[in-house]
Design brief:
single chain; 1 helix
Length: 130
């Protein structure tokens, strides 16, 4: 049986040092399938031209994926093992990528984070066993 694909629509806010701060938000789709976490995103702007960019994370690149549900907002935090993995992603902070999730997509985001973390744990155990 094939693993189902997990999909969550997300929104990024550019970092304060990013030239796009205040001009645009970045919308995208986060998917997880067969050990690959893929973020496809593009700026949502009427001023700047928008191009679709895709970033893929393998399990070896990830440290943790956290889902946080608060009263007003929900977020997915992607913490990589190396900061260089986040190069070229608008809205990425120095140590993590914080993605906003709409209320209707909270369950899908929680399921995605759980599945990624489960696969990460299994991958780490396989690495230990050699």
């Amino acid at each position: 049986m094939l693993d189902p694909m997990y999909r969550v629509p997300v929104r990024l806010t550019p970092a304060t040092t990013d030239y796009m701060k205040g001009i645009t938000d970045i919308v995208g789709m986060l998917t997880y399938e067969r050990g690959t976490l893929r973020l496809e995103c593009k700026p949502e702007s009427y001023i700047l031209p928008s191009t679709l960019s895709t970033v893929e994370f393998q399990l070896a690149d990830l440290f943790e994926v956290q889902f946080s549900k608060k009263w007003g907002t929900s977020t997915l935090g992607i913490q990589p093992r190396r900061m260089s993995v986040l190069d070229g992603i608008p809205g990425a902070h120095t140590d993590a990528l914080i993605l906003k999730v709409k209320r209707k997509d909270r369950n899908a985001a929680a399921n995605l984070a759980s599945k990624v973390n489960l696969d990460l744990s299994e991958w780490r155990l396989e690495q230990l066993d050699g």
